[in-house]
Amino acid sequence: MLYIILLASIVLIMSAGIKISVWMTENITKALITQRFQDAEFIMHNHKAPNLWSTGRHMYVDFLQGTLPSRLHVWLLGIFSGQANEKRQKDYLLKCLDAMTGYFEKCPFFQDEESRNVLISGLQNERANWVNKPINQIINQNYPTNPTDSRS
User: Fold this and answer.
1) Which of 34, 37, 49, 65 makes an SS bond possible with 53, Cβ 3.0 to 4.6 Å?
2) b/e string for 88-121 if b means 16 or more Cβ within 10 A?
3) Which of 45-54, 90-99, 126-135: highest mean pLDDT?
């Protein structure tokens, strides 16, 4: 009897572990791959930064996408140098765009090299435009954060 209870407990724990692993894999994949493609599509179509870039992404997303050092650098730069908040925010947005462009240069999830080159050149053109634009034309203030939100 004790053997059956022990075996059932092990199966239950393993099942929960598998479900947690699948859940974590889905979330990490979304943060690493899916979100980047969605952000790139948003930038290319709207010529603005995605909402989460300007309102503050979760720290683990910055960590997973490699932009956490940029985020911390821009934050510390603002604290110690007294730069205006808009300049710090614009620097962070440009670093996020640079990190995304760098990711797509190495990303294996493209149908062909022409698709990759179209996306990369489009993002590089957007970066050149963002450098010359004021921050209020880069951030996406007119679009809802939640796609189902209809307030704007």
Assistant:
1) 49
2) bbbbbbbbbbebbbebbeeeeeeeeeeebeebbe
3) 126-135
- CA separation (Å) from 29 to 77, 110, 118, 123? 31, 16, 23, 22
Structure tokens at 136: 């209020």
**Domain that residue 85 falls in:** 35-138
Give the other-Cβ count within 10 Å of 64's Cβ: 16
Please list the helix, strand and coil fractions of the chain in percent, rounded to the nearest 5, in that order. 75, 0, 25
Question: Is 143 contained in some domain?
Answer: no
Contact of 33 with 109, CB cutoff 8 Å: yes
Q: 59-106, pLDDT tens digit by residue?
A: 767 776 667 777 777 667 666 565 567 777 888 889 889 989 998 998
Would 147 be classed as within a structural domain?
no
CB 36 within 8 A of CB 108: no
For residue 152, the SS3 value is coil
